[in-house]
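tool=predict chain=A
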Amino acid sequence: MGGAIHDKKEQMDYLQNRLNMVMNVLETIDPEQAGVEEIDRLLAMLDDIEVKCKQFRHDWSE
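tool=predict ok
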């Protein structure tokens, strides 16, 4: 998909874009039609963001 991101600004931009994607998904979910699959999808997206945050935190501490 892309190379490693080591620049702090690029890392913050990456996280902002991922969080925007989560917000877009939330906005498109119809609460009357949503099911477990939608919740699982959101959880997976948040898990991916958490992994990146931990990676970036490690990079910033070096």
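The chain has a mean pLDDT of 92. The helical segments are 8-28, 36-61.
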